[in-house]
Design brief:
Elements lengths: L20 E2 L5 E2 L2 E6 L11 H6 L1 H5 L7 E3 L5 E3 L4 E6 L5 E6 L14 H11 L3 E4 L2 E4 L12 E5 L6 E6 L20 H7 L6 H6 L2 H13 L19 E7 L3 E6 L12 E5 L5 H6 L5 E5 L11 E16 L8 H10 L2 H9 L26 H4 L11 H11 L5 E5 L5 H15 L4 E4 L8 H4 L5 E4 L14 H5 L15 H12 L3 H18 L2 E14 L2 E2 L18 E2 L2
Parallel strand pairs: 3-14, 3-15, 17-18, 17-19
Antiparallel strand pairs: 1-2, 4-5, 6-7, 7-11, 8-9, 10-11, 12-13, 13-14, 15-20, 16-19, 16-20, 21-22
Helix pairs in contact: 8-11, 15-16
Length: 569
């Protein structure tokens, strides 16, 4: 794990509840730091749709390590404490993974290639069971991106070595996004739960009955309910481990004494997610590191903190249903015409900063590309029609599409003052087109309510995530529009989009990439599965005295290097 070099601030008196440690500089080191982040913790399993959407990467990246983690610029960074991953020559794309010989979980079980087999199997999409309309995936995976291209994982149960071989003729450019932090799950826990010697044998042989049991645990065995967790199924492979999780005390992470790498510098981190009255935790100075959507909690007092607002790699957007009032593409286009995208950016999209080019420089005109991509300016022209504010065009489109007189319910996780203001501006703008917009935000809102038909749109970040989202590779953004993917809560499906995404995942020619991206952007602005608004602005703040705090406006959040945090007073 690389050491963060940029120091910033720390914790105030509200977290000084444990005796201090004396540092060599003569100051006292606080042994417990509160981390307030607007994720909504739902599962330990960051590879599941539930865990990924809840923000597992922002909370558990230093609890469940992987061969790579998401760095502060959104890039995959190698974590050699976990092991090494090397592409080796061969007719088919082949990656050799070697786990650290000293690697051991906090419960004493050695890390093993079994973990890679489980992760691949769960994310591959190849294991199905009978469903009402035909076969359905056994595993409720966030996405199958990259994993579905893997032909096999060669692994002897208990070994530290694994060879991953991709399908013939298939090259996955972003292979460093596989088997990553918060997504490489402990296979030995599953084997114990299903009463099998290991998971490798049944997954390799296709033992249907046992695989169904494995999938059942993978889907549900790692769900996290405050006050009802079982630490025995939550072993850590990182510098921190989960000690407890409750409404009163938050998610408590403590130093993992079995960790073989550099020890965590602070013995205890207390995570306060968005749905744990995070605003009051901030106001009572119970946190020393803050990572939230800019403006989401209004004018909170941050005296004693070093604060920075910056554009994130997550796309603030409206994810639309593809049924109900938005069952027709004409209705989705009509709604997009009345969404005041330019006005929303002007008022809410760049609080406290102005960027002339690149990330955060204007309304976001793509769902899958970053604004600082070299391809972005040349491929996003189709968005020009949808700047918003043309009441006449929106009204005419609403009338012809049947959306006029209909009600659109927009859901998001409350409290969130910026998103409430966003819905209010959309309500006013769309009212002129004869479309009624209702604020359906709620503290217990989940993106799954879009799939269930309880709302018509979700206001959130990339892949409908309520908190930190986005990465440089854009894997989650692409997957969230792929047919049948777990993060595709709007259930959009388009065969041509899927084919383009597949080709782009392996494409290395810049000219072909430009052509494909242009076609992809035109298709998405035509089909309108979502309405991108702007690069989500993030507020990251470090309390005075906290060292090694580094902002990361990505899916990993400020907690990407929490094991390096030191608070001195």
């Amino acid at each position: 794990m690389v050491t963060a070099r940029r120091g910033a601030a720390a914790l105030l008196a509200g977290v000084l509840t444990v005796g201090a440690l004396t540092s060599c500089a003569g100051k006292n080191q606080v042994p417990s730091i509160g981390y307030g982040v607007d994720a909504v913790i739902a599962s330990y399993n960051g590879g599941s749709a539930l865990g990924a959407n809840g923000g597992a990467a922002a909370v558990f990246s230093r609890v469940l390590t992987g061969f790579f983690y998401t760095g502060p610029d959104g890039q995959p960074v190698a974590d050699t404490d976990t092991g090494t991953a090397k592409e080796v020559p061969g007719e088919a794309q082949t990656i050799q993974y070697r786990l650290n010989p000293d690697g051991v979980y906090s419960d004493g079980a050695p890390t093993a290639c079994d973990d890679l087999v489980l992760t691949w199997a769960a994310r591959s999409g190849r294991f199905t069971k009978a469903g009402p309309g035909g076969p359905v995936p056994m595993f409720e995976a966030a996405s199958t991106s990259g994993y579905s291209d893997i032909e096999r994982v060669d692994c002897q149960p208990g070994s530290k070595d694994a060879t991953v071989v991709f399908r013939p003729g298939r090259k996955y450019v972003n292979w460093k996004t596989l088997f990553t932090a918060a997504e490489l799950m402990p296979a030995h826990v599953v084997a114990t739960a299903v009463k099998a010697p290991n998971v490798v044998a049944p997954l390799q042989s296709g033992d249907q009955a046992t695989v169904e049991k494995i999938a059942e645990f993978w889907n549900n065995g790692w769900k996290l309910t405050p006050g009802k967790i079982d630490p025995s199924v939550l072993p850590s492979s990182g510098p921190y481990r989960v000690e407890s999780f409750s409404d009163k005390d938050g998610l408590v992470l403590v130093k993992n004494e079995r960790w073989w790498g550099n020890a965590a510098k602070t013995p205890r981190i207390v995570v306060w997610p968005k749905n744990f009255d995070l605003k009051s935790k901030i106001e009572s100075k119970s946190v020393g590191v803050i990572d939230i959507g800019a403006g989401s909690f209004g004018d909170i007092g941050l005296g004693g903190f070093s604060k920075e607002n910056q554009p994130g790699r997550g796309a603030e957007q409206l994810v639309l249903a593809t049924g109900g009032v938005f069952g027709s593409v004409d209705a989705r286009r009509a709604f997009a015409l009345c969404v005041p995208r330019q006005a929303l950016f002007d008022k809410l999209g760049h609080p406290g900063y102005t960027v002339k080019s690149g990330l955060g420089s204007g309304p976001l005109n793509s769902r899958v590309q970053q604004q600082d991509s070299i391809y972005y300016p040349a491929t996003t022209g189709a968005a020009d029609r949808y700047k918003g504010g043309d009441a006449g065009a929106a009204s005419q489109a609403a009338q012809s599409s049947g959306l006029k007189g209909q009600t659109v319910r927009i859901g998001y996780v409350k409290p969130d003052e910026r998103r409430a203001a966003t819905v209010a501006m959309i309500t006013e703008s769309c009212q002129a087109a004869g479309i009624t917009v209702v604020d359906a935000g709620a503290p217990d809102f989940t993106a799954a309510q879009l799939t269930e038909g309880k709302v018509d749109a979700v206001l959130a970040g990339t892949a409908s995530m309520p908190g930190p989202s986005g990465s440089l590779t854009g894997n989650e953004a692409t997957a969230a529009l792929r047919t049948g993917q777990g993060l595709n809560f709007g259930r959009f499906g388009n065969g041509r989009y899927d084919a383009i995404a597949d080709q782009l995942a392996a494409e290395q020619d810049s000219g072909t990439t430009l052509n494909l991206l242009t076609e992809q952007e035109n298709l998405l602005w035509s089909e309108m599965p979502s309405v991108p608004l702007f690069a989500e602005p993030r507020t990251v703040a470090f309390g005075d005295g906290l060292k090694n705090g580094v902002t990361s406006p990505t899916r990993a959040g400020a907690g990407w290097n929490m094991d390096r945090w030191v608070l001195e007073r």
